[in-house]
Amino acid sequence: MEKEVMTSTEAALLEYKEGLGVFTKKMPGLAGHFNAFTAECFKEGAIAQKEKQLIALGISVYSQDEYCIIYHVKGCLDQGCSEQEIFEALGVAAAFGGGAAMSQAVTLVQEAMDELKTQH
């Protein structure tokens, strides 16, 4: 039986999930409030969840938060974003974040999309 190899994107998502689990055990009140707040922010509303994920991805790229970049690439794909929609959001992020944001867009985002697209 061949052992499945985890991609770097899957490894980062697992590391984040495990870290959040430890934090939640140590700080259940704070984590509970934070999780409830973010769940409320990402609920369907006047802005669709798909667009909220694109906004979050753009902010993540602008701020160069690698875990959030990967998490929101997955969120975008889970919400049915096309590659073109993701690239347009990255363009807006690069317009504000310059070369640093563009470097995340052309490396980490593309790697995560390639690795996660096989799951969709």
Automatic annotation (TrEMBL):
Domain Carboxymuconolactone decarboxylase-like: 28-111
One Pfam family it belongs to: CMD
Any one Gene Ontology molecular-function term assigned to this protein's record: peroxiredoxin activity
Record keywords: Oxidoreductase, Peroxidase
Superkingdom, natural source: Bacteria
Stored NCBIfam families: ahpD_dom
Protein name: Alkylhydroperoxidase
Organism of this sequence: Pseudobacillus wudalianchiensis
